[in-house]
What we know:
heterodimer, A: mainly beta, 4-stranded antiparallel sheet
Amino acid sequence: SQTIHQWPATLVQPVGSPLSLECTVEGTSNPNLYWYRQAAGRGLQLLFYSVGIGQISSEVPQNLSASRPQDRQFILSSKKLLLSDSGFYLCAWSAFEWDTKNIQYFGAGTRLSVL
Amino acid sequence: GQSLEQPSEVTAVEGAIVQINCTYQTSGFYGLSWYQQHDGGAPTFLSYNALDGLEETGRFSSFLSRSDSYGYLLLQELQMKDSASYFCAVSFNYQLIWGAGTKLIIKP
């Protein structure tokens, strides 16, 4: 069965510090991978998605970047965090095959507080 | 642009039936999905409608009408554990376009 791991669960970082969040998927090959951010009580904002190694699509210009160094690994980074980067970050995967449902399966999330 | 609208909050009584609506202003999508998210947790997939009509999964049903640009999630025999936020989303190539979510409050 497929599983998705996302860590850490909670992170407190000072303004101006770097960030690296990692997400890995097991039990499937060539998944579509996604990074979302969710503000408290709000909907999901798509940040990045990837359909293959080294292929990253950015949805919102911002202080963050993403990389996919391996097929089932997706990394979210920042060189210098801003207060506005605080939020709940979610990684998700969906099957690559021609599946128009695009059912997405989410990791447990990382709650980031920038102080 | 593409947008989906949901009520921000719905209140219902335990054991009752509740309907959460989703209206959209978009076209060319493959289908309409529903996700559930408990406080502090991650969204989980509930239901998907590719075609117009009703899809039933246990106590949950979902409906889509493309001609009316409208869908809904129906929850029956409400239980306290159904207290959560519910999101509708439409699927395009590789992406989901999400609604802002509806917080369902259940009273005993």
